[in-house]
Amino acid sequence: MLKPEDNERLVRVGAGTPAGELMRRYWQPALLSAELPENDCPPARVRLLGEDLVAFRDSNGRIGLIDAYCPHRRASMFFGRNEECGLRCVYHGWKFDVDGNCMDMPNEAADTPMKGRVKILAYPTVDRGGVIWTFMGPRDSVPEPPDFEWMRAPSTHRFVSKTYEECNYLQAMEGGLDTSHSSFAHSNYLGNKTVIRNIDTAPRIDVEPADYGYRYISTRKVGENQRYVRVYHYVMPNQQMRGAFKPWFSNKDEKDPHRVPKSDGHLWVPIDDEHTWVYNWACGRDRSVPLTAAFRDESETFFGRGPDDLIPGTFKLKRNRGNDYLIDRNVQKTQTFTGIKGVNTQDFALQEGMGPIVDRSKEHLGASDKAIVLMRRLMLEAIRAVERGEKPPGLDPTTHRNIRPYDGVIAGDTPWQESFADELLAKW
Amino acid sequence: MLKPEDNERLVRVGAGTPAGELMRRYWQPALLSAELPENDCPPARVRLLGEDLVAFRDSNGRIGLIDAYCPHRRASMFFGRNEECGLRCVYHGWKFDVDGNCMDMPNEAADTPMKGRVKILAYPTVDRGGVIWTFMGPRDSVPEPPDFEWMRAPSTHRFVSKTYEECNYLQAMEGGLDTSHSSFAHSNYLGNKTVIRNIDTAPRIDVEPADYGYRYISTRKVGENQRYVRVYHYVMPNQQMRGAFKPWFSNKDEKDPHRVPKSDGHLWVPIDDEHTWVYNWACGRDRSVPLTAAFRDESETFFGRGPDDLIPGTFKLKRNRGNDYLIDRNVQKTQTFTGIKGVNTQDFALQEGMGPIVDRSKEHLGASDKAIVLMRRLMLEAIRAVERGEKPPGLDPTTHRNIRPYDGVIAGDTPWQESFADELLAKW
Amino acid sequence: MLKPEDNERLVRVGAGTPAGELMRRYWQPALLSAELPENDCPPARVRLLGEDLVAFRDSNGRIGLIDAYCPHRRASMFFGRNEECGLRCVYHGWKFDVDGNCMDMPNEAADTPMKGRVKILAYPTVDRGGVIWTFMGPRDSVPEPPDFEWMRAPSTHRFVSKTYEECNYLQAMEGGLDTSHSSFAHSNYLGNKTVIRNIDTAPRIDVEPADYGYRYISTRKVGENQRYVRVYHYVMPNQQMRGAFKPWFSNKDEKDPHRVPKSDGHLWVPIDDEHTWVYNWACGRDRSVPLTAAFRDESETFFGRGPDDLIPGTFKLKRNRGNDYLIDRNVQKTQTFTGIKGVNTQDFALQEGMGPIVDRSKEHLGASDKAIVLMRRLMLEAIRAVERGEKPPGLDPTTHRNIRPYDGVIAGDTPWQESFADELLAKW
Is pLDDT at A251 greater than 70 in this prediction? Predict the structure, then answer.
């Protein structure tokens, strides 16, 4: 449960709002590198933290991320011409470089002093790990760009995609941090409807604060004297990392594309208060095993059916809020817990189904929600730090550079810290 | 004409609003019994008086009507699994019975005290007369369920359907109570456009208050020394009953499915301030004459063309606000007064055409609007009664149990009270 | 740049708003004459300055423009029957003439005094020049109807159409008054992308106030010692007139339908704050050269592809905001400046692309924006005049009756006032 005023502080992301200002202290994904596939290609619309922007890759490969509207008379820069190291407005030909400088003003006299004075808003960018990152906070305190292990993996071992979600980032991220729901929402092999009672559906959850946020560990009993332990990272303010051992796969088809050794995770990037980009990343853990094409296909929409899940030309799911995710009540009775196809789509049904912004004053949280409760507390503390003029935690890449998540089954009483010691260190 | 502040008191239906609280003192239709066709069938969305709910029929046939959102983390209960006497949330498996008790909380420890403490909002229901009724008012003063004659008729003699209307309930109900418009809006046999002058288009209207609301009588002169008299009931707060003799049918096709002896009527149930469920009911008057399949078909959308009028899978008319009800201006010139097909659709064009909520301060009411004026007065009085902590009229089923509407032509000077005395008593 | 409070004064058009009241002091286009093609034809919806109205042509050809809602119970008059010199509401048969008088009230007693008392709101109209004009201001100061030259041209030499635009009228009109953008937005023969540097893209702009608003002159250097001079009129509050010599056509196909000698222009008529009717008119200048069918076709959407540009049965462009105007990025790279087909569509992309109402506090205006700056000043002054109870400029048709725009190339130093003297006088 959360007081309405705290909920408001956490969910609003526009400029000047508490969480909006916190988000603006961190580098954020603006778009996929692949959305600007080559120099001088068409510009792309970007809506981020409630601001309308346009991104372009210039003739030299530099990335511009500028105001969506021309400073002259506010025509849309999206219709602009990307040419000769600048984006030119098609209304009167004003042209701007990636830093926001006006390079040409052809409808005014050649010697007009306006050209030197007028700038367009431009945010700094870096293109790393398949993602174009931007920093929308104060220019006098731009931190070092992020350096997560998955960003350093070679492209053979790295996968990134994104999906459009129609709700606030916080309830989406809470769905990601939540561990116990996978026994229900993602239970896709019911056999019969009592099967869910045969596994340990109430994992113990331990949370350990860290410089970058926290790591949390879910422990489930498995058979005789074994434990299935998952070590996750919550990286402030909006990323989760997890291992992907997934022992239940052992009962499944050997051809499952997810049997490749990897870590994966999400970033939940606010488009605005009621819409979110979910970035999906995966990172092979073993240098000798690159990510396969089959894995990449299926991962496009994260455990969905791949690119076919998306409405062509968009990042929107075909099975969406408007069609009740094509829930099949017969399948729900007999085969899967939800009757909805695809892990990602199952999550969206639950997260979007709460409405655009969940009313957390009506919640009833239990022991299973421990990680979520701590995330909210860290976020609220970080918001207060920014309000006091201080730096929020985790800005320094050294805090997250070496972390890696892991999952595994441990026999006997060996502490996971011991069993997993090496697996939890980044190798790329 | 109505003062804007009185209009507001009448049209708003959310919890805590004047009319909303009045409506919550009566049992209201929540959905058709047929929408939950069997035990453990898929749940159904219900939006009622501005509240989002989910209905389900449990393994024993009991009906639950609960909050649309799980009390744990507010996932949508619509996606829930209806199984073993409860609806189970697919997020973490919490399961609730029709009374709102939590029966299972599988992601928490088996002995968690939360299970006993957490409830989901659940409204009481009864399933009668083809309709699932609910009571959304104070639990300490639940009245006896309603007992209208049509609810007691056997299914062979009873018909119920519903249609979705895109406007406030009050202007929809005012269209139903209105008697004089049938000579115009529903004049479908123009022959030529002066025909409307040949019938008595300005009926006299008498209104007689009663415990359940009022009955009102429209009297039209017919030929030499005859009167066509219609005796209607307005049953508070949102039902109308009428006979169905309809002497103009005598000039029409003998195969008209409406020639069966019956009463019919509507309930206008607020979905929210700007949307309404119109329940259509009919009840055969003669034990030896069951309602025919042809009659049922046509009645699906109330004097429309039957199920074919509806967008498949919905209760929405194909001829609707978005396509100007497919008005045919040539038909309007030569055949029907409106150029719009279907009595129900004609009414919707007029009622929805006023906009979502009509501005009654701009009206000019005449003698023909007498019944409407009294209905508003009764509603405003009942609202004040509730505000004073008193009971509104008509809660006791004995007030409406024996009433029946009737229409007929009377020769000579016999008072209708005498001619119709037996016809106005319920027989089921 | 404009202060937010001045922007608000200019963009809001509802009754009682500053610009709304100014607009209501002038006759305004309500709809095309062709939308009411014959006596007793179906009525047409009209939304104008934020008011919902219905227009009809009565049995004698007179035009009614009345409240969209019946004064009785507010049913939609759009569904009304247009018959025997009046529009009859289909709810209860009340009938109104073009002046708003109630002619029939058939659901009330024949001698009801209401019939004489009830009126429906009706605005005066005139049907001239292919347009039905109305006056929505105070009835005690109705000015003479407008008398622009193009309205007097015979139908062989006159063309009028309209298009629906999804933004405020002011940014649309500013796009029309703007002269320098044509070298960019409408540059459709790039050859290569540097061609725009080979013409004079920074015209000199002179503005000369006049009783009706102002005329403004753009001058571009052409080759050796020649000038291309365009003389426009801005006619208060929302019309522009311009010549159509267009010397660049000389390089083009002889079959260009626009080679006919003509003037043309637009009126930007506010539907409401966020939607605008753009009326497109053209007027042949030479009695011996009527407008051709090819010209009329192409002009339907103003330099677009004609009627095929429109969604059938509407005045809306197929290439619109919802589909990014079907911009073709490859065409934009190689053939046209915008990659968008059609002059009108190019303008709409720029004007609608700013959002429904542009935020003028973020502008940076230059010398090229002189005409726009003056228009805003004249409008703000006229608004203040109306607020003081005075008449705004240009109400008297003598102020605009004789004006004509013109374009042409002048050799040597002859002043345009001398070269164009005769061409600038109306001939119809």
Answer: no
Q: What percent of chain B has pLDDT over 90?
A: 81
Non-local (6+) Cβ contacts of A140 within 8 A are: none
Amino acid (1-letter code) at residue A414 = T
Beta B406-411 vs B226-235: how paired, if at all? antiparallel
B→C interface, C-beta within 8 Å: 174, 180-181, 183-185, 193, 196-197, 201-202, 324-325, 327, 329, 332-333, 337-340, 346, 349-350, 353-355, 358-360, 362-369
> Between A and B, how many CB-CB pairs are < 8 A?
91
CB–CB of C165/C174 below 8 Å?
Answer: no
The values of phi and psi at residue A34, to 5°, are -70, -15
The CB-side HSE value for C318 (13 A sphere, CA atoms) comes to 12
The phi, psi pair for B24, rounded to 5°, reads -75, -5
Residue A90's closest CA among C361, C194, C309, C332? Answer: C332
Q: Note whether C354 and A75 are within 8 A (CB).
A: yes
**Distance in angstroms (rounded) separating the CA atoms of residues C108 and C89:** 14
Residues of C in contact with A108 (CB under 8 A): 202, 366-368
Using a cut of 0.80, tell me whether the model's pTM lies above it.
Answer: yes
Complex ipTM: 0.93
CA distance linking residue A210 with residue C199, whole number of Å: 63
SS3 A149: helix
Sort out which chain C residues have CB atoms less than 8 A from B204's CB and list them. Answer: none
Integer Rg of chain B from CA: 23
CB contact under 8 A, A197 and B71: no
Contact A106 C185 (CB under 8 A): no
pLDDT band at B195 (very low <50, low <70, confident <90, very high): very low
Task: Give B117's contacts (C-beta < 8 A, 6+ positions apart).
Answer: none
- On chain A, the residues whose CB falls within 8 A of the CB of C325 are 79
Q: Give C132's DSSP letter.
A: E
Handedness of CA B306, B311, B312, B314 (dihedral sign): negative
Query: What's the angle, vertex CA A326, arms to CA A323 and CA A331, rounded to 5?
Result: 155
How many CA atoms are closer than 13 Å to the CA of A141, on its beta-carbon side? 12
Minimal CA separation from B119 to chain A, in Å: 10
C207-244 confidence digits (pLDDT tens): 999 999 999 999 988 878 889 899 999 999 999 999 87
Cβ within 8 Å, pair B75-A353: yes
Sole residue written with tokens 């034990």: B287
Residue A202: closest C-alpha in chain B: B107
